[in-house]
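Can you give me the bound-state structure? Components:
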Amino acid sequence: MGETLHQEAGLLTPDDVKARREADDPHSPVVRFGADKPLRLDAGVDLRHLQVAYQTYGQPNADRTNAILVCHALTGDQHVASLNPVTGKPGWWETLVGPGKPIDTERFFIICANVLGGCMGTTGPSSTDPATGRPYGLEMPIVTIRDMVNAQAMLLDHLGIERLFCVAGGSMGGMQVLQWAASYPERVFCALPIATAARHSAQNIAFHEVGRQAVMADPDWCGGAYLAQGLAPHRGLAVARMAAHITYMSDQGLHRKFGRRLQDRVLPTFGFDADFQVESYLRHQGESFVQRFDANSYLYVTRAMDYFDLAADYDGVLANAFRGSKTRFCVASFTSDWLFTSADSRAIVHALNASGASVSYAEIESDKGHDAFLLEEPVLFDIARGFLDSAARAAGLPAAKVR
Amino acid sequence: MAFRDRVLDESAVRSQGGRVDLVVVAEMVAPGSRVLDVGSGDGELLDLLATTRGCDARGIELSREGVNAGVARGLAIVQGDADVDLAHYPDDSFDYVILSQTLQATRRPRWVLEQMLRIGRHAVVSFPNFGHWRSRIDILVNGRMPVTDNMPYAWYETPNIHFCTIRDFVGLVETVDARIERAVALDSSGHRVRVNLPWWVWNLLGEQAVFLLSRK
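Here's the bound-state model for the whole set.
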């Protein structure tokens, strides 16, 4: 591996073209809303010609009461439990979603939509603006977590799902879960927000700003208009991803995985090659990320997280967001997660207690940091299964098959 | 939550060596009420309350293992510390707040009891009685801290940092200005000590005590 991140910066690779194609014509179902059905954004403007790309797994029951909406995180997508068409890798939450898994595709009808502002087929900055025939780029209005949720609600209306049995998600997905429970309490029977917060912390905003500055400092960003130039700010986006990736892991986790071990060498090179395994790993993370993710999307979606402060819409009192809620909640956090800490989850739990809502909260021991919610964590699986099974009983849904 | 065909049967539980104190606690709780169990362990009492009394029963538990086991069973349990987290519950948010075999492990028993009576209209407290004759003999004759089935820890590793006797507890109830609605003492075989005996007899014979309190 050379001294810099990228062999040749800027020019679009075949993978870029493949990923770029997903923005308008994804490998998954899409709903295209006409100009007569605009999405009113928090930014105060109407987004016309909204397109929402989604995946479903399992079958709806006769009453359409068994739907689970899975909300994805910052760089996730709708391919929860099926091959990703860009990377060719398995779905990002196959640990939790699948036949016989806690989010059981044999019992539930699972829906996951690419978020508003994303780059996998739901309207975002890399989508083609039907008004101009060019990618939106920075012409795309700023979106919020609530806008994402409202777009999902339009999708559910289209699919004829009046009421969700459950909304589940981790990290930014968990923010959407909380927003769902606050905005549409009557549409959510139970909610599973994992490793998340009711507001983005100053520290997390700061990390996001570093990432955005890395993207914008890359000359190939072209003031946001790189697609029109046939370029992409790979170097900047890769640095953003590398920095972010550190925040997804814990000190202990990094140490366990890499320690101070050298990469394919016995002695340091006394240069700036990736001598250490941890450097090599981060470079790889950065490089593979830029092949699948749009840089402007990264700016928009991180911004949406920064703006998230659920209590702010309820006179600064988070409990007011859940007042009178009949939704059952199960909140989970991980001990070594320093991005979305247990204290953040406790704040949610305290607000839910204060509002009288039914809530379970588990702090799960793990050294895998924030990423733990995506990884093999049997305690999380047991908790999710127990919570969903008991909620399904209360909702009158059939019990799980004995396996 | 619907009843699930279970009834409280104290003598059956006693003969099977089960937790009679939990039955006594559950029996003090009105059917269908909203209950918060502080220190809910693995959720045995929550399950009993839900299945035999049709309660909306929720728990707080300090140990992650207890919470994980309970939530995996579908119970509504929050991982938290009673000594801190009770402050976050609003006034009158439950009909009953229960402290089952946990009072002696709290850092601030008085504060916890006051919080319970603020959050719930009733408080139910069960605890091992340090004034039981066997404890007294251990100290008086053997000169050792008592170690029994109910209090199985050596003094240097016990989580129980605030032991009290029945008399002591009645004193605390007076201090926080609460009313005793009912009290039950269980002897070492799990039988109830006769009601019409004076406090000092209860304090000798009761190995465990269960109190139902309310605000004055």
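A couple of observations. Residues 313 and 380 of chain A are 31 Å apart (CA to CA). Chain A touches chain B at residues 328, 330, 346, 349-350, 353-354, 356, 358-365, 379, 382-383, 385-387, 389-391, 393-394 (CB under 8 Å).
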